[in-house]
Amino acid sequence: EADTIIPNSLEVGTRIVPGLNSVAFSTTPAFDLSKGNIQQFSCTTAGSTISPTFTNLTRGELMTLIFVQNSTTACTVSWPSNVHGAMIVSATLSGVNTQQFMVSNAGTDLYAVGPTGMTGGKP
Known about the structure:
The protein has one domain. Helices cover 0% and strands 39% of the residues. It has strands at residues 10-12, 15-17, 20-23, 30-32, 38-42, 49-50, 53-55, 62-68, 76-77, 83-84, 96-103, 110-112, 117-119. The strands form four sheets. Strands 3, 5, 8, 10, 11, 12 and 13 form a seven-stranded mixed sheet that branches. A two-stranded antiparallel sheet has the order 1-2. A hairpin with a 6-residue loop joins strand 11 and strand 12 (110-112).
């Protein structure tokens, strides 16, 4: 039987983690890494402070966060204590902020592994 290859996916252990998980707007969004190693969030309510949580972390896993600002008043992010070295989300209206994280060996924390990126494009 031939292997099935899923485009834009990552194999972790024996499970396939689909590429992109779009997380619905909330001031307390839950980023579930079992739903994808790329997590996208759009701040749709102007001026909100976002306090995210991250679940189903697999040690050594790389995760990319895409944060899209709204077009009227920028949102801010209050990172949880298990996220280390995270970006300060740009206040550029309609901006797209990106950052990659690696899950700690303990499987409990996220560490930023690269520089952040910010564009004015569409995610």
